Amino acid sequence: MRQKTALIPTLREVSEAAEMVSHRLMLRAGLIRQLAAGVYTYMPLAYRVLRKVEQIVREEMDRTGAQELLLPAMHPAELWQETGRYETYGPELVKLKDRHEREFVLGPTHEEVITDLVRHFINSYKRLPMTLYQIQTKFRDERRPRSGLLRGREFIMKDAYSFHTDRESLDETYQAMYDAYVNVFTRCGLDFRAVEADAGAIGGKGTHEFMVLADSGEDTIALCNECDYAANIEMAEVVFNEPAEVTRGEQQPEKVATPKASTIEEVTKVLGVKPDQVIKSILFVADKEPVLVLVRGDHEVNEVKVKNVLNASICELADEATVRRVTGAPVGFAGPVGLKEKVKILADRAVKVMPEAVVGANEADAHLIHVVPDRDFQVDLYADLRNIQEGDVCPRCGGSIRFARGIEVGHVFKLGTRYSEVMRGTFLDKQGREQPYIMGCYGIGISRTVAAVVEQHHDENGIIWPSSIAPFQIHLIAVNMKNEDQARTAEQLYEALTQAGYEVLFDDREERAGVKFKDADLIGIPLRITVGAKVSEGLVEYKFRRSGESGELAVQEVLEQLPELLKRVDQPAS
User: Fold this and answer.
1) Is there a domain that residue 26 lies in?
2) Given 383, 400, 430, which residue is the final one in a domain?
3) CB 176 within 8 A of CB 64
4) Strand 474-478 relative to strand 462-463: parallel, antiparallel, unpaired?
5) What is the tens place of the pLDDT at every residue in 309-333?
6) 399: which of 298, 332, 428, 480 lies 20 to 30 Å off by Cα?
7) 251-288 pLDDT, tens per residue?
8) Would the pTM of this model clear 0.90, i.e. be above it?
9) Using an 8 Å Cβ cutoff, are 322 and 336 in contact?
10) For 69, left (φ over 0), alpha (ψ -120 to 50), or beta?
11) Which domain range does residue 353 map to?
């Protein structure tokens, strides 16, 4: 590709609204252009990268025996109503009507559509297992689409769905997909971890997220310092060793004034106590029913664990009006003693062994001290309801937990019969009995993976593409196209390289050398070959984008030396 006529609008500066490194660099390198919030045009360089990621994904999916198809992006609302997700998926679901007032959904995912397809054609165990996948644009109306391709409202995803007669078959495909994902992200040059995760709106039991490690990541990952345990903080299990005996406080509850002290920090300061002597009382609404959740003051409640313990479809923090109705107090002063309404009370296991505690008094500017769990209030269920913390015990080996930040690029689910039962997707087993398909679901964010690569592979000058997905293998630069020797040699090299099958971006622009080199660093193609002043001596310069290593080559030896040079492009600086 000749850069003189290529659509690569590089920029020196971008808006401060672009917070993520990948967002800024992809805008500056002319890879993407925003059309609307969370909606981007993939410019020619970005599209080449996307196609290479897609090819890697296709190769690994096909190796598992999965079959590629293409499903509609616009779904009749009736399919989503069948599963109940039309109401429960949330405001991210893009809904619309056609001219006949029929309701549709722009697909954020395709469980309903693929189940509808398969239930019409696969009705015997002899046709199973089967795995189908597609690569397609998806739509989700994100609340804060401010991270470039990492959180867009329109994005490219690979989604696969498997159908089985039994759990053993699902487990086999799940493992095959897990291994394929490891291959995909390794081939894309990513440093990642597969972590235990929550299924969220997709549903099902048994899931892993594939997280790219990056300081800019939105997700917190709990990692063990001793073993390979890794889990999203939403799912990381907290080890709890209940003591054989707890010495309880003997004093009766006493109301004390805590003016304007509605946070743990304020309460501990006013009362002169430590955070682990206070109980946080947080009101949730789970499937329209209020639930009070208690955790120790130095812990954070885990909303996903609360939702899963309650087996709720929707679980969210109660609004201020609900808090006042149930507790009689403003937010920050709720407690489990003397509630206005009788509600279910859940408590983290650490609350159970507190000798006594400070709790909200269910009235403004007041707390109760000397409150003893199971004496002064009753808990309906004790469970693991808090976020794991750094230094906590690893649930697998007993080692110590540390945190890292991650960007989710893939997710694999064991759906079970979540969709097949409600949609009557069934087959006849060997005994002729009707059974629901047992399903799996496997997603990779294609466009998100590209952005995650940039988050991991860059320096102060720009992007550093891994060779496997770089838009071009070689960036050929003619320093001065007005110099006859340089222009002629560069043109000859471009012709020879392209004829030999190499992917070359040829900077034939009549720009200053400094501009060309800055753009080359920004765009980040792995190997640069520069035709400059030394061409009169029969020499050109090569430079590796990643390591910065450079050297000279005789013009007539470029083709001969290229295979060896390309083997070295991904090596880090020594």
Assistant:
1) no
2) 383
3) yes
4) unpaired
5) 999 988 999 999 999 999 999 999 9
6) 298
7) 999 999 999 999 999 999 999 999 999 999 999 999 99
8) no
9) no
10) beta
11) 254-383
